[in-house]
Specification:
Chain lengths: 467, 225
């Protein structure tokens, strides 16, 4: 099944407009920054005002150096997401500053413990293959925060971790060291960690974030080249306008990475969005967002890069390599454990909705129709028994039930209560294999940093094994 | 045009967000001998109030509000030489309102700050915009240099939010904290965070920030430092 948001001609039109913008308007960065210096050394012209004009020929040549296939590994070498266009891998949402405490229900600042618990819960949920750092740990000291977030996540999931909030090269260097420790120990084969860096719309490069991304690229760790323009605020006030800004920013930044590190793994990450017309803040409920995310997927595919996007079924039907969905509320600022469980069920349903249904003698069931004939039912047919387990039984969304049963269920609590209980059960019982001891020791040294005294940073201790 | 017609035309220009026309009408009103303070009050400030009321009712959207603010700013620029310093402040205080604004160190996200800055200028506040990635010392220097009584800080990243606390502490250390009201904003910022770092408030969007600054200024406007 495929949904085409853009025709082939429209894809070319958007790409041409993006090339025009990058050449005529260009990207901006602080002219005295280290990044500007590195780009000048690489032969690019950064004007004294910090404008970087990128000719179309330069962009096309640089994009051609980027690999189509990117491998995201788990930290134990088993959980690998191969972004090669053949499957969509699902990530959690990120990166919130707040958490709904699953015990008290209180909204509070997120902590390392929330990283630990959300990573462990993600590890237990089979349809998520990548843990996108779900929250920023406000209780970790800043220079070491991202290293401690990564160590905490890695302790609690073997799945690939993608970092979001890395904005300084020294933070990136620490995580690169930790990834190296995992690889050198033999535990991880593919990149166990990647990072997202976003161009600041419209058309501005964050020098710290870019330097951090370049440190990842230099180490062969994947970089999600991201753009999140907001139509009417940081992009033209239309869906194609938001898409255009997103495409221009992503290919512009990707070209810079490929110029400095040819062949570095880069993921085309387009999250074109819309504003609330009254306040200007991001509005994820604008229905055109699904079109924009689907169109962004097509744009990434058109430049032969692995694609990461957001959205729901419309995006999934474009077959992106990665899709982020689930676990955060309130414009992706608040982590909700119960929401992650509910969204996991929705993810399962979306994947099923997008899955092709083979049509053959067996699935048509002509023999079964012959057996039953007019009237009667199919419930006790062998054909039915062979297929009944393919049916979806919702646990946390609205199940099919009579009114009396619905009343009884309501008396026992809402579907949200059930999801919260399930989240707490999985967090308490799901066992995650420990990190290889040698790698763990090396990672701890990095996360401990040079500080003589530090607060408790360990992830919550491993729960008892499932059985 | 007589006075009433001029004020009607100014209102139309503000509602339509026509800055060029608003500036021209301000000049025409001055040449017609109207009192500058009255032009400001009956022409521009009342128009902006009308636009704000339409926004509150959901009849106007943010871009229309921003264009109206730009039109008011154009009118103010024409009136300014004729307004006394004391009369220029329309937020209700005796001292002129000066707001030092910036996105804190390590952060270059500034859309929210720019929206708030434009709205504040439209109500007659002098905005000193320090730009992005602003160290605490620059906030302190600007408050001292410009005699600011309001400070606005913005951060989008959770990793840069702590820099807001550093600015509050730096103002405290410089002995300037008591002379200013501080508002903080940005997607991850909450009331609890603002309170925790010793700021005076926060708001979720541009219009909320405008109301916040107005209320902070109206409560007890500190004298210029």
């Amino acid at each position: 099944m495929r949904f085409e948001a853009l025709t082939g001609q429209e894809t070319k039109t958007v790409h041409r407009a993006a090339l025009q913008i990058l050449e005529e308007v260009g990207l901006h960065l602080p002219p005295a920054s280290t990044l500007a210096g590195r780009l000048r050394e690489a032969g690019l012209q950064v004007t004294p005002e910090g404008r970087l004009h990128l000719p179309a020929s330069f962009i096309e040549a640089a994009l051609a150096k980027a690999p189509r296939v990117v491998r995201l590994g788990g930290r134990d070498g088993r959980e690998t997401a191969v972004l090669d266009g053949r499957r969509t891998f699902i990530t959690t949402d990120g990166c919130g500053a707040w958490t709904i405490d699953p015990e008290s229900g209180e909204r509070r600042a997120s902590t390392l413990d929330d990283v630990a618990r959300s990573a462990r819960l993600t590890d237990a949920l089979e349809h998520y293959q990548v843990y996108w750092m779900m929250v920023s740990a406000g209780d970790a000291p800043l220079p070491l925060r991202t290293a401690r977030e990564y160590l905490t996540a890695a302790r609690n999931t073997t799945k690939h971790v993608q970092m979001i909030d890395v904005h300084r090269p020294e933070e990136a260097a620490a995580i690169v060291k930790m990834a190296r420790a995992l690889r050198e120990s033999g535990a991880a084969t593919d990149a166990p960690v990647s990072m997202l860096n976003s161009v600041v719309s419209p058309l501005r490069l964050d020098p710290g974030g870019c330097e951090a991304a370049l440190a990842f690229a230099a180490a062969g760790l994947p970089v999600a080249a991201c753009s999140m323009p907001i139509a009417s605020v940081t992009a033209p006030a239309t869906a194609p306008g938001s898409l255009l800004m997103s495409h221009a920013e992503i290919i512009g930044f990707t070209a810079l990475v490929q110029t400095l590190y040819p062949g570095a793994p880069v993921i085309y990450t387009g999250f074109p969005a819309f504003a609330d017309a009254r306040t200007g803040i991001t509005n994820y409920r604008d229905p055109r967002r699904w079109w924009a995310a689907a169109a962004a997927t097509q744009m990434g595919q058109s430049v032969r890069l692995p694609v990461f996007t957001s959205g729901e079924l419309a995006s999934l039907l474009e077959h992106p390599d990665m899709l982020c969905f689930g676990g955060l509320l309130e414009v992706s600022t608040v982590l909700s454990f119960e929401q992650l469980v509910i969204d996991h069920e929705i993810v399962r349903d979306m994947l099923l909705s997008a899955a092709p249904q083979p049509v053959d003698d067996e699935t048509l069931g002509v023999d079964a129709v012959r057996e039953v004939g007019p009237g009667g039912h199919f419930l006790s047919r062998r054909h039915t028994l062979r297929h009944i387990r393919e049916f979806v039984v919702p646990k946390f969304s609205e199940p099919a039930r009579p009114v009396e049963r619905a009343e009884q269920d309501a008396a026992r609590g809402s579907p949200g209560d059930a999801a919260r209980r399930e989240a707490l059960r999985l967090i308490a019982t799901h066992a995650v294999p420990p990190i290889d001891a040698r790698a763990a020791a090396a990672m701890e040294r990095v996360a401990d940093g040079p500080e003589p005294a530090r607060p408790e940073t360990r992830a919550r201790s491993s729960p008892p094994a499932k059985s | 045009m007589d006075g009433a017609a001029l004020y009607g035309a100014i209102r139309a220009a503000v509602v339509e967000g026509d800055a060029e026309r608003a500036g021209a009408l301000a000049g025409e009103a001055l040449r017609a001998g109207l009192d500058p303070l009255e032009i400001l009050d009956r022409g521009f400030t009342s128009s902006l109030r009308h636009v704000g009321s339409c926004w509150e009712k959901g009849e106007l959207y943010l871009p229309e509000m921003m264009l109206a603010a730009e039109a008011v700013k154009a009118g103010l620029a024409v009136l300014k030489p004729r307004l006394s310093a004391a009369g220029a402040s329309k937020a209700g205080g005796a001292a002129p309102l000066v707001c030092v604004m910036g996105t804190v160190a390590g952060d270059i996200h500034d859309i929210g700050k720019n929206i708030v800055g434009t709205l504040l200028e439209a109500i007659g506040v002098r905005v000193v915009d320090l730009g992005t990635d602003v160290e605490a010392s620059r906030f302190v220097g600007a408050v001292r240099e410009h005699g600011a009584n309001l400070v606005g800080m913005s951060a989008l990243l959770t990793s840069t939010m702590p820099a807001m606390r550093q600015v509050v502490e730096a103002l405290e250390a410089a002995g300037l904290r008591r002379g200013v009201r501080i508002a903080v904003g940005g997607a991850p910022v909450t009331k609890a965070f603002a309170q925790e770092i010793g700021a005076d408030g926060t708001a979720a969007d541009g219009m909320g920030a405008l109301r916040l600054f107005q209320s902070l200024a109206a409560k007890e406007v500190p004298g210029a430092v």
